[in-house]
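U., I forgot to send this yesterday:
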Amino acid sequence: MANRETNPLRQLKLASRSKIWRIRSDSARIEWGKTFGGVWLGIDMSASPKFKFAKGNVFVRGLLGLAAVWVASQRGYAAIVSTQTTAMFRGGAAHSGVYDTRPPTRLKLKWKFQTGEAVFSSPTFADNVIYVGSADNGVYALEAATGKLRWRFDAHGNVHSSPAIADGTVFAVSLDGKLYAIDASSGAQKWAFATAGEHRFTKPGIDYLNPPTEEMADPWDFFLSSPAVVAGVVYFGSGDNNVYAVDAASGAFKWKFKTGDVVHASPAVADGVVYVGSFDANFYALDANTGGLIWKFATGKDEEHHLMTGIPGSAAVAQGVVYFGCRDGNFYALNAGTGGLKWKHSLGGSWIVASPAMGGGNVCFTTSDTHEFVVLSAKTGAPVFTLPCNVYAFSSPAIAASHAFFGTFDGKIHAVDLTRQTYDDSFESPGFKKHSSEYLTQKGELNSAVVWTGETLEDNTLDIRVKLFSLGSFLSSPTIHDGVLYIGSVDGCVYALGE
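Result:
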């Protein structure tokens, strides 16, 4: 199958004086348009029946591109072909979680690479290289075929965000409160942008822990915001409560928008709008050019124990609808233009930390406390099917063809056949094989009596980090390319799985 991300005719720029017009072609659409104020505005030529046959055909798309060059030359334009790859968390700026490639037929280990600490970051594939962060403060570039190290960049803090790649630059957010721009070829720093500083979601007596009046950082707030890059601008959230936009080439500040609490969700960007949730329990739509508030939507709050509150996960945007899960136990679908509620689905008091994936007219995601893989109708929210996964799941599903893939806290990766509505493969980490008998029941469920042994923050943190994570938990979300799945584990390894 053609790789639209690396297709050299993916983007054709037509320059006339200071204005840039272009034909943008990939396996999903063929557009003619231009960028106004950093926002792409284009006409989808692929909507025409004459163009529909060309959507999946690289050769025909190439002919269309060459035809555009000829037309441009007749009108006195200069044609510039761009071959730069853009790749980021969840497969693109809209965070659909869909990868236009063939899925792995088997979850068999091809290679693994050991970093120095846990990997919460989700790998990003670009130009045959895997880019990923680690809690050892490193951003890594690995050969996708072999796992061989190309370079490591020291980000001076845990990199619990997923890198974005655009125009030969890798962008990553670090726990030191900075967004780093790194040369994709050499690993050399280009620039760094400093926020006011990172911190986790913090409240007194959080999650029913003792003492109830002590300010505590949430031990389940693992992730940092992953950057999205659109039209030369990098968008990301921060523990200083702000959403930022900075110039991708220089790191120059463009704008920031202050929410009421930590923003560790990753912004989705579509049609000139930035969509992002905050731990203040509000979901925001912001003007991508100015940072101005377009609308906000309030989810449920838990002012007493601060347990069932906040939006740590990222949204997906599709067909004019924004989809996201929340720690208030609900999954939401909002009108992307107005913020009006289209529908919501209750998960019986379970957190939804994972980001959703869109496919086949449905939306799918994993849950934490109800231990499920859930598929709903994207249009109505009606249940399609649900599969048990036995333990907590923070990993966001990735879809390729008719299969979905995700990881769980027990150190397993699951493959779901979306057509047959059943599991068809799995992979077990070394930690699962070594420690599952200690911390899981015979049914594969968490042995709570053994795992949870105290009521303080210290107890809870040790139970998570020492016991639960000994299973080799997969909190990272998969990336898929050409029959191979890439994912990180808290055991410090990056795994490549395929036939």
